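So, read this over?
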Amino acid sequence: MLKRLCALAALAAALLLAAAPALAGPVLDRVLKEKTLVVGIATGMPPLSAKTAKGEFIGLDVDLVKDLAASLGVKIRFEPMAFDKLIPAAAAGEVDVAVGGITITPQRNARVFFAGPYFVSGQTLLATREVGAGINGLADVNRPGFSVAVAKDTTSEGAARSVMPKAKFVLTENNDAALKLVLSGKVKAMVADYPYCAVAVFRNPEAKLGTLQKPFTFEPLGLALPPGDPLWDNLVTNFLFNMEGGGKMSYLKNRWFQNPSWMRLLPK
């Protein structure tokens, strides 16, 4: 009897494994068949996503998708692109998942599915202490003569235009480009998510940078997935849930936000 039950259990498991590809939707089916997870990534968002001096991708978001690929037993292929191309790429199914500090918004959620949030961020202002000495609040920034750099087509741009509509905006390709304008004195400040600004302060001690003490927005971050594949959406959502419940997410947050040793890997 026991042998029969074991044989039936083995047969049931084999049938489930054989049926899995048939049950998979278009995205999951492609990932399993090609044994590859295609990830659209925007760098310049440390400690979430960045590119090292050797050209390798690192960050919290990078570790998440690497663990996702490992859990599926597939390899990973990164497709670097500008931040404003991430949502279109995911919506068109050109990538299986898009990462790079993507805030979940109704407008984006109308085009793609979001797994998460896995992290909560917020927008803040970054400037030199010399400039910051004259800033007591956003009202001091919201004036025509105040120049602000911000990465285009990001929630940073939307938030900045909302709270300081009178300021002069300089749009850049990414946060790193905006930071260069601040460091060179070509703009008075930049707006970006708090994690990026906090890292910028540590990376550039000679510039004597500072940020607002409290972010002026609430921004949940998620992994952007192509629409039309509920099974893939559910799989990634539960993957993040298990990462959180099993303690791996806390480990990754501590690794990237509490230990600055990874910053030596970034380009000078």
The first strand starts at residue 36 and ends at 41. Confidence is low (pLDDT under 50) at residues 1-20. The domain at 123-211 is CATH 3.40.190.10 (D-Maltodextrin-Binding Protein; domain 2).
